[in-house]
Each structure stands twice: as C-alpha cells, then as structure tokens.
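Weekly modeling sync, notes
Attendees: S.R. (lead), two postdocs, one rotation student

Agenda item 3: backlog of single-chain predictions. S.R. asked that every request posted to the team notebook include the full sequence so nobody has to chase files. The rotation student volunteered to paste the first one in as an example of the format we agreed on. Action items at the bottom.

Example entry:
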Amino acid sequence: NEIWDQIIESAHASAEPGLLFWDNVLKYTPAEAYAEDGFHTISTNPCSEITLSAYDSCRLLLLNLTSFVTSPFTKKASFDYKLFREKTIQAQRLMDDLIDLELECIDKIISKIEADPEPIETRVVELDLWNRIKKAAVNGRRTGLGVTGLGDTLAMLGLQYGSKNSIKKTDSIYKELALASYYSSSVLAKERGSFPVYSADREQSHNFIQRIFKADPRL
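Predicted structure, as returned to the notebook:
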C-alpha cells in the first residue's frame, strides 16, 4: 500500500512514473511471435513509448488528437474518426518510409567504419553492433505509431478525464488507431512485400492479432 500510495502521489505531482505491466507486454506484443528470430521483448525505449527487442530501433511518430476535434469546447464538439483514420493510414506509410531512411544512414555508418584507417580488430566491435542493428531493422521493420494530446482532446469534447465516458472514448480512439494502422500495414505489404520474418501461421493465434481480426474481420 505504501508503494502504491507513493506511485499515485508522484503521478499526480509530476506525471511520473508511468506504469507498464510486463506480463501484458509479453502477451500482447506481436513481436513475441518472432522471439526465436531475435525479436523477444527485453526492454523499452527510455520513455517507454515502445517495447523493443535486442538491437531494434526506437522509431516513433505521433498524431496530435486535438487536430481531429470539431467545434471544441462546445455542445457540438465531436471527434472526426474519418479524418483520423485517413491520417493514421498515411502516418503508417510514412513510418515505413522512415525505416528505409534509417537503413540508408546505417549503410553510410557501416561504410565509414569499414573505410576507417584503424586496424580491423579495433573496428570489429563497432561493425558487429551496426550490422546487428541493420539486421533487426531489415527483418522486423518495427514501427511505433501513436498519439498525443489525449487529455486535451477529452477536455475539448467536454469529457471529464477518468470518467466512464472518457474511458469509452479513449478506447474507441485507440481501436481506430490500431485498425487503421494495421489496414495500412496490410496495403504496404501488398505493395512492397511483407517484412522478411513475417509468418502468417505464427501470427494467426497471437492474442493481439486475434483481437484485430475480431474487431474487423475484413482485415
């Protein structure tokens, strides 16, 4: 109880610490389907927006939810789900492009290290590190698409933060984010090919993927 009280008091005073339930992370992170390929979840980025496996990269892009509120702070206030879905689809495509930009930079770094005048035994550790980072990026193509401005959005919609209605609205927004981003990812897979370690058989029974299928059978 003392620890819990300290967590709540600190969260109220400074919005820290956030709480991450690791059993849920392992249960609902699709990357766990590829644990034997090196994508077992071992940590997060420093601010915990994205869970990561060894040598993977923190690629983040956020959509500002306040941009999708019409007639804010009025009785007519509403959330534009159609526009939100459209921009989420575009954002997921941009995230995939970001991986290619990262790979270009990694190749430049590797070429620079290979051309350095130091003996190979001096460069081998750094080369190994960057080649592992490149392998993780190429094989998994992990993206971290999320949102910001949720609290302000709820206020603009006239919803009290933490109320049952605010929780219901939050669920609906995140559901649309998940479905639209997975739709966009599916389209990208058709256009560009799936990421190399992808296996439909492995993902078929995954807890999170099953929730996606149940929410939108068309996917």
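Discussion: group reviewed the output briefly. The two ends are 44 Å apart (CA to CA).
Action items: rotation student to repeat for the remaining queue; S.R. to check formatting next week.
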